[in-house]
Structures are given as C-alpha cells and as structure tokens.
Automatic annotation (TrEMBL):
It comes from the Bacteria. This is DUF1403 family protein.
Length: 340
C-alpha cells in the first residue's frame, strides 16, 4: 500500500516571489540501494522488489502532490526522454534534440509534418499534458495509437478500454502494472504503448491530475508470450504465474521513478534560479515567458508570446542566459530553443 499525503493548499504567489518553500526531493540511500538493476534482479524476491517499487512510487507521489510551478517542464522533459527511447526501439536515429526540433519547429497547431519520430514525441507529450482522467477513454487510446503509428481496430480499442477500467480499481498495484502490459499484449500492441498505458493507469490510481512519463525511457523490461486469457482475468494471478516478469516490471518502474525524482530536484534548482531573477526582467511579457519556461520543455526563440517581437524575445533570453537562469538547448546560431 502506498500512503499518499494530502495535497498542500495552493498559495497565491507571484513569479517574482520566493521559490517554493518545500524541500527538494530526496531519496534515502537505503532505498537507492534496494532498487535492483537488470543484472542484480535474479537474486531478488518479488516481494522485495515490490516493496522497493512501492516506496519509490510513494516518494514520487510526494513530488507530484507538491504541484510545483515547474512540474509542467518536468513532465515534458520526461516525455522527451520516453520519446527518444521509443524512437531507438523502433530503429530510428532521432535523438532528443532531433525530436524537439521535429515538434517545436512546426507551425503552431500543425503537427501533420512532424514525421513518424515527431509523432512519437507527441504521444508522450499527450501523456504528460492531458488530464489523467481523459487518457484511457476510447478517444484518448485511439489518439495515442495514431501518434505511435500503430494499427488499430475500433472494436479492439473499445475492449481494451473496458479492460483498463477493470484494472483501474479493485486490483493491487502489482496486478495493475502487470495487467496493463497483459492488456496491451492481448491485442497485439507494441511495447511503447504498454509503457504508456501503465503510466496512465498509475496516474489514475494515485489520483494525479497529470501522468508522469516513466516507463518509456526504461530499456530493461521483460517480455512474455501474449496471454491467452483476458487481461482482467489474468491480472489477479499475475505474480504467481509469472513472478520473473512481475519483478522485471516492478524494478523498471522503481528505476524510472527514481530518475524522475532526481530530475525533479535538478529542475527545482534551475527553477529557483529563474524565479530569483524574474524581478530583474523589464520586458512587459517577461512574466508570461517565465511561466512558459516553467511549464514546457523548451521555447523557440521566434515564438510569438504576448506580442513580443523576435528581437525583444531574443534579448530577454540572452539576459536569462547571462543570469544562468535558462539554457540554450539547440546549439545553433539560428532557430534557437531555450529551457530550464
């Protein structure tokens, strides 16, 4: 069982105010040691791995419930990592920089030309940015299958949505994780989609407003033959019938959660710096730019924000770089991108 702290009440603070008073996320050394890698998994019992996974997800839950100003950028940075791993698994050569270019250098709202790899990033950005309650509807499932370039049948999508509704309540966390993979395998869907489903189910189970992309970037995930029984009926006995697979998935989830926690601490430090220098910015739309930097992976320097000219926005970004508050992410002299 994961004990979830109640969300802290929201305070009406401005961007110019002090950074979050909450402490940065930390993971105790004993928990880091308890999370097995792929090589040490064989010597672990499934109960021990489940305990480590539960404790790590509990620590991640505490980060999510702080509802920090930088949480949007955090989730989108994790989405980018998941998309890069998805592209590699599909045999593509695009790295994180190329995926960022494919999506952010398109015209606003026009994603028809992002290409197959760019669509993979859209799938993970959809997971990070869509309210969790809408992710596992038939429309949500169909949309992400389209993003991932997977063939879909409307009847299969409807049946899968029914299976997922059963998984979202009345089943333990271990059964829910293994069941998400079993449900996707039953209909022949690829690994990336299984990871996407598991992350969405976790968010719904824990009551998060938005999902946190976790498993997409985890390379070491076990596989098994497609289940012959329905996913819902096989979930309850998933540990007993396939403990090795349960261990593999739980360990992967724990490692992914730990990476997400570590990234949150890194981005919190960067966000604190950005919020500290915000009062020094004189541009009229500086507050909106800061909000965008806190809510997304990156901003294109030529983007239209509150009527700012290209030159004005570039000057603002140059000043933020001088302050050490943001980084230029593209490495190019033109079509530059900035983020935490």
């Amino acid at each position: 069982m994961i004990l979830r702290p109640k969300p802290s009440p929201c305070h009406n603070t401005t961007l110019a105010g002090a950074a979050s008073a909450a402490p940065m996320a930390t993971v105790p050394a004993w928990l880091r040691r308890a999370i097995p890698d792929a090589q040490s998994l064989a010597g672990k019992d499934v109960e021990d791995v489940a305990l480590a996974a539960g404790a790590t997800i509990g620590a991640l839950d505490a980060v999510v419930r702080r509802q920090e100003k930088w949480a949007g950028a955090w989730r989108q940075r994790l989405a980018l990592a998941g998309a890069a791993a998805t592209a590699r698994q599909a045999g593509r050569i695009e790295d994180e920089a190329a995926l960022r270019d494919a999506v952010l250098l398109t015209r606003p709202g026009d994603f028809s030309s992002v290409g197959p790899a760019g669509s993979m990033l859209l799938a993970w950005r959809r997971l990070a940015g869509t309210p969790a309650e809408k992710l596992l509807t038939e429309a949500g499932i169909g949309a992400v299958l389209d993003d991932l370039g997977l063939r879909r049948d409307d009847d299969a999508v409807s049946d899968l949505a029914d299976d997922l509704r059963q998984l979202s309540s009345g089943i333990g966390m271990v059964g829910m994780l293994t069941g998400a993979f079993a449900a996707a395998e039953r209909y022949g869907f690829a690994r990336a989609f299984r990871c996407w489903l598991a992350d969405a189910l976790l968010a719904q189970r824990l009551g998060w407003v938005h999902a946190v992309p976790l498993l997409g970037a985890e390379a070491a995930l076990g596989t098994s033959a497609r289940p012959r029984r329905s996913a819902a009926s096989s979930v309850a006995t998933g540990i007993e019938t396939d403990p090795e697979r349960a261990k593999s998935l739980l360990a992967a989830q724990a490692r992914a959660a730990l990476r997400a926690i570590d990234l949150s601490a890194e981005l919190e430090r960067r966000a604190d710096r950005l919020l500290a220098v915000a009062p020094k910015l004189r541009a009229k739309a500086a507050g909106l730019v800061v909000e965008r930097l806190l809510s997304d992976d990156a901003i294109v320097a030529s983007e239209r924000i509150a009527g700012m000219s290209d030159r004005g926005l570039r000057r603002l970004f140059d000043r933020l770089v001088e302050f050490g508050a943001v980084r230029e992410l593209s490495g190019r002299p033109t079509f530059r991108m900035y983020g935490l």
